[in-house]
């Protein structure tokens, strides 16, 4: 059952951020322009162990023992095939650094609105941008979410405020990129390819890395609002961390699964799997998603050697990463999943 949304009334006052709205003493209910009615039977379940995302041990994935590495690559391939989401433990990125990154983003969101205005932009690939909702020009319903997006690779960009953000984000982006690279190599091997096959094909050395922080304040009526509606990501490998509040739900076997990650783990999204961000009425949730994609001018195409091996024809046309990101941000993304636009049409 599709969610019910209200039409956005242009006469209603617009707020600069969801934080401004949530901090208002007068807020007791969800304004109509944010109303997103979810099917009561379409809620996530975090209690069933049969619906827990797989766990990948990074230490074994990068082990010097061929047997240990082979076993973990096989497990990684199965996780990608059956889930598209998994969590990575023992990855070597200090938990203290992950917390510092979340704290730095929280300090940004807590800046006065006037100080954040200089980063408001409508351009998709501006090095630094912040805003609210998703795209207020085309949104069918406004989202209970503010965001900050900073491109960290191939050229590192950063904020000069709040204090300490630049140093923390530089270290965090380097460490997460190293983890993402090893995961991509493992995925490549799980497909029977050379470890660096996908990286070379996608010009990984010039690949795009984005630090995308999301701010979801407590909501007085969480069943009547949404942080981010069902969507798929555009990167090759997306790593995500969050504060102590859960909210990420993944669709698996037609059921929404609330993701409970182990402390200090990365939640990883590899395949175009539907997921969403829900909100709560208890405390603010902050997540930081780090999509790692190809170089912007590189087209993603079906891998010829795998097509030959399976005796299959390509089911998707190619498109550069930049064009795919533009497609995802366009009204067309509301009509159907982005990948459906790239399906090869049957004659």
UniProtKB/TrEMBL annotation:
UniProt xrefs under SUPFAM superfamilies: Clavaminate synthase-like
Protein's UniProt keywords contain Transport: no
Pfam families: 2OG-FeII_Oxy (PF03171), DIOX_N (PF14226)
Source species, domain of life: Eukaryota
Annotated ranges, domain Fe2OG dioxygenase: 206-294
Keywords: Iron, Metal-binding, Oxidoreductase, Vitamin C
InterPro entries for the chain: DIOX_N, IPNS-like_FE2OG_OXY, IPNS-like_sf, Oxoglu/Fe-dep_dioxygenase_dom, Plant_2OG-oxidoreductases
GO molecular function: L-ascorbic acid binding; metal ion binding; oxidoreductase activity
Tagged with keyword Metal-binding: yes
Residue stretches in coiled coil: none
UniProt cross-references to PROSITE patterns, sorted A to Z: FE2OG_OXY
Record PANTHER family: OXOGLUTARATE/IRON-DEPENDENT DIOXYGENASE
Family: Belongs to the iron/ascorbate-dependent oxidoreductase family.
Protein name: 1-aminocyclopropane-1-carboxylate oxidase-like protein
Lineage: Eukaryota, Viridiplantae, Streptophyta, Embryophyta, Tracheophyta
């Amino acid at each position: 059952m599709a969610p019910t949304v209200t039409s956005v009334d242009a006469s209603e006052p617009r707020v600069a951020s969801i934080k401004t709205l949530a901090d208002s003493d007068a807020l007791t209910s969800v304004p109509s322009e944010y109303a997103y009615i979810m099917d009561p039977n379409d809620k996530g379940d975090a209690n069933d162990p049969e619906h827990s995302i797989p766990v990948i041990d990074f230490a074994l994935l990068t082990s010097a023992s061929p047997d240990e590495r082979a076993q973990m690559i096989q497990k990684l391939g199965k996780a990608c095939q059956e889930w598209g989401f998994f969590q990575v433990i023992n990855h070597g990125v200090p938990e203290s650094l992950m917390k510092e990154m979340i704290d730095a983003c929280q300090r940004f969101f807590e800046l006065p609105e006037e100080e954040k205005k200089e980063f408001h932009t409508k351009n998709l690939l501006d090095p630094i941008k912040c805003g609210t909702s998703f795209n207020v020009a085309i949104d069918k319903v406004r989202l209970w979410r503010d965001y900050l997006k900073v491109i960290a690779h191939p050229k590192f960009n950063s904020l000069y405020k709040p204090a300490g953000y630049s140093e923390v984000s530089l270290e965090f982006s380097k460490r997460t990129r190293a983890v993402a690279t090893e995961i991509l190599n493992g995925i490549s091997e799980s497909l029977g390819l050379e470890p660096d096959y996908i990286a070379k094909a996608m010009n990984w050395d010039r690949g795009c890395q984005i630090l995308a922080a999301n701010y979801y304040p407590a909501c007085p009526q969480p069943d009547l609002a949404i942080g981010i509606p069902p969507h798929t990501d555009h990167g090759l490998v997306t790593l995500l961390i969050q504060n102590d509040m859960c909210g990420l739900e993944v669709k698996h076997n037609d059921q929404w699964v609330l993701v409970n990650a182990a402390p200090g783990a990365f939640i990883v999204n590899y395949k175009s799997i539907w997921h969403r961000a829900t909100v709560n009425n208890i405390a603010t949730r902050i997540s930081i998603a780090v999509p790692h994609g190809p170089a912007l001018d590189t087209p993603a195409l079906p891998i010829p050697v795998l097509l030959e091996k399976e005796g299959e024809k390509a089911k998707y046309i190619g498109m550069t990463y930049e064009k795919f990101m533009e497609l995802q941000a366009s009204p067309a993304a509301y009509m159907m999943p982005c990948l459906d636009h790239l399906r090869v049409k049957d004659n």
